[in-house]
Amino acid sequence: MAFIEAVTQPKERFSLLLLDPGEIYFEDFSVFYYPPSPSEDKAIKRKQKGRLKICSKSVLFDPSDIQYPILRFPLRDVVKVESYDPQSLFSRLDSKNKVLQIVSNAVIGMKEGNVIEPFDFKREKSVKHMFSLNYNTVDSCVPLMCQLHRASTLSLADQSNMIRAIVLSRQSRVKFNTSWLEDIYEKIILESQGDHITPLVTNPGRIMLTCSRLYFQPFNNVDPNPVTKIKLSAIKRVIKRRFLLQQVGLEIYHGYDDACLYLAMKTEEERNILYNELVKQTDVHLEDMGTASMTLKWQNGVISNFDYLLYLNTMADRSINDLTQYPVFPWVIADYTSPVLDLESPSTFRDLSKPIGALNQERLASLKERAAEMPGPKFLYGSHYSTPGYVLFYLSRVAPDYVLCLQNGRFDHPDRMFNSVAETWNNCLNSATDFKELILEFYQPQYRDFLTNANAINFGIKQDGRSVAAVELPPWAKDPHDFISKNREALECDYVSKNLHHWIDLIFGYKQCGKEADEADNLFYYLTYEGAVDLESIKDPNERASLEVQIMEFGQTPKQLFTSPHPQRFSKVAAPVLVTGQAAADSSLLPAEEPVSQSSPKIEVPIFLETMANASDVDDSSIDKKWKSLEKNMPYLEHRLHKEAITDVKFSADLKSVFSVSQDTMLKMYSLEDQSQLRSVNMSTMALSCCFVMPNGKTIIVGCWDNNIYLYSVEYGRVVGTALAHDDAVSAIQWQNDTLLSASWDSTVKVWHCPLQTQNAGSSNPELMGELDHDSGVSCLHCNPVDVSTVVCGTQEGGLFIWDTSSCYVVSQHQVHTGAVGTAQFSS
C-alpha cells in the first residue's frame, strides 16, 4: 500500500488538513454567518448557513453551500471574541440568543466552489464577523474560544503548554462510549488515550482494548465513522514505532488489504503497556517479521529487491502514515537522456556505494571544506534525503491538499515544482542543498498518477509560459506506466542486485552513523538521528518546541538495522528444467536454459513441429538431429503472468489451459485458446512451490512455503480445503489413484488419502495415511506411473530414495549427486 492509495478526497469539504499541522479540532456548532456588509438589510439577505468549528489555533466557518469558501480566522489575528447583543440588526430575527462576534484583522478563504487552489489571504483591520447559533447558546462556546484566543498571544512554547492543559482538561472528562462495543459481553482489557496519526494530522481519542477487538474513538466528529473497530483475529503485524524521534508509536496492520492504524501514546511506557496487552491476547496471531530470515530470502532470490527494501523501511520505522519518516528508495538509474535504456551497461546506473551528496566530487569537496570550518557537531549535508517537503514535492499532483497544509496554503513556485525527471536528477547531482532520494511510488506502476496532473490542479505558470502539467519523462519512457515499469526493471536487474547491499549499508546499516558514516561521506545534521536528543529531558518549553519543529521539517534518519556490512545478494542461477515422458531418459539432450528473470517471469509454451520417436527405434545420431532441429523453432506463445520466479507449470487435462504458481504467492490460470488470463488467486503470504491438476480439471492442489497444502476449486473459484501438511515448506506434490504425496524441506514425504470424488464435492481435506523419513530435506518426488505404491524421492544432499508407500519401507537408497536433486522420474 502506498500514500497515493491512502489519499482519498473527503466527502466533506472540511478536513483536518485545513488546519496547521498538529492543530487540534475540538467541536462545532450549527450557525448562520452574517458577512460584513454596508447595511443591516444586506447582511441579513447574505446570511449563510453552516458549521462553526473551534480549533486550538483558529476558528473556521464551513458553509453548507459549497459555492462559498470555507473561512478560517487564525486566533493570532483575532482582536477579540465576544458575546454580542445588538440593538437593531438581530432584533428582527427569531433568535432569542445573543450573537457571537469575532473581530479579526485577517481571514483566509479556502476551497471556494470546492476547488483545490491556493488559499485566499485577506487582511483588513478590525473587521466584524457575526454568527447566530441555531441550537446552542453563545455562552456555550465563547469561554473556550476566549481561552484559546488568550493562548494565541503567548510565545510558541507557552501557547503549546496552555493548549495542552485545555486539551487534557476537556479530554479527561470524555470516556469511551461502550454502546459502540460490538458485543455487550466483551471483556474490557485496557482503556487508554492516544493520537491517531495520519500524514500531517494528529487526531486524539480514546483507545479501548477488549478480549476480541481494538477500538479507537476520536474526541471530535471529523470522521463520519465515529469509532474505528479492528478484530483481534484480523491483526497481522503490530510494530513499535518512533514518532518525532520518541518511542511512543504503534502501527497495527490488519485485514486482507493490510489496512493500518497508527497510534501515538503520550509516553513510551503507555505504548509498551498497550503493545504487551495486545499481543498476548489469544485471538492475535502475528506474522513472523524476523530480519535474519528475510535477509536470507532476499539473498536467495525468494523476494524481490523492492519487497526487501519495503521490509527494511518498515523495520526502520518508516511508514506512509508519517511524512517525516516516509519509506525511502534509491535512485538507481543515472541515464535520463538516452532514447533507449540499456540495463546491461554499468554506465546506466548510479553508484550505489555512495550517498547522493557524494556522487559529485566537486560538490563534495566544497561541502567538506565547509564542514571543516563549522563548530561541532559537524555534518556534511544540511538537508536530508527524505523530508515531508521532498515527499510532497514528488506527490504534489495527487496530494495538493497536503502541499497546501505543509506550505501554509500556498503551492511552490511553478518552476521549482517536480516538472522533469532529468531536471530533478541533475539538481540532486549538482545542487549544494538537494540530496533527496526517491520514494516507493517510483517503483509501483499502479500508482503512476503522481506523474500526471489528472485532476487539472492549477499550480501556476512557469517562466516559459507553460502551465504545470504532467512530469516530463526521459526519452526512453513512452508514458508514466512505462517509466515506472522500467524503473522497477532496473531495480531488479543484475547490476543493482549485486550492488544494492552498499546502499543498504548507507541508509539502514553500519555506514549510517559514527566513524563509518564519516568515512563514507554520509553525515547529516545531528537532529535527524535517533537518540541525538531526549525531548522528555528538555525542561525549557521554548527549546523543546523549537526542536520539535526542526525534527518535523528536517526529516529523520531511519532506525539503524545492521551494525556490520550487509551481505550481498547471490547471483542468479538457471531455473531447474522439468523433464517429462521419454525425454527424461536423457536430460543431457535438452537445450541450455537461460536464467529466469526475477523481475519479469513468464510462461513460454512452445508447440513443436516435430515429435520424438521412441528411443528404441532410432539411433543416437537421429536423436541428436531431432533435438538440433528444435533450435530453429520459435516460441508459439509467450505471456507475462507473474512478478517473481515461476516454480511450477501444469497443463489442464484438455490442454486448453495452463496453471502456474510462483514465488509471488499467486496461482494463475491462462487460456491458450483465448490467450488471456482467466484466474489470479493470492493463495498465501508466502511463495507457492508446486501444483497438480486433478484429472477432472476441477481441482488444483497447491504446495506452499507456509507448510500448507491448498485445494483450489476451479468451478467455485475459491480454496475449498487446507491441510497443515509439514513443519517446513512443501517442495513437491503428486496425486495418483486417490493417493496424494507431498514432499517437504522438513525431511519427510507424507502419503495422503485424497479421493477424486471427494474433491469434486470440495468438502473434505486429505487424510494422512503414512510418513516417509529422510536424512535431509526432500526436493522432489515421482510416483511409478504403473504402481503408485512405488515412489522415488530426491533430497537436498543429493540422495535418491526408492520407497514402497504401502509399507513405508525403503526399497533402496543411492547417493548419486553432490548437490540437491532437482528432478527425479521413472521412465515410462
From TrEMBL:
WD repeat ranges, renumbered to this chain: 639-680, 723-752
Gene3D superfamilies: BEACH domain, Pleckstrin-homology domain (PH domain)/Phosphotyrosine-binding domain (PTB), YVTN repeat-like/Quinoprotein amine dehydrogenase
Parts forming coiled coils: none
Source domain of life: Eukaryota
Pfam families assigned to the protein according to its UniProt record, in alphabetical order: Beach, PH_FAN, WD40
Residue span, BEACH domain: 283-569
Keyword match Repeat: yes
Record bears the keyword Repeat: yes
Keywords assigned: Repeat, WD repeat
Domain BEACH-type PH: from-to ranges: 183-279
Name recorded for this polypeptide: Protein FAN-like
Organism: Lingula anatina
Gene name per UniProt: LOC106150867
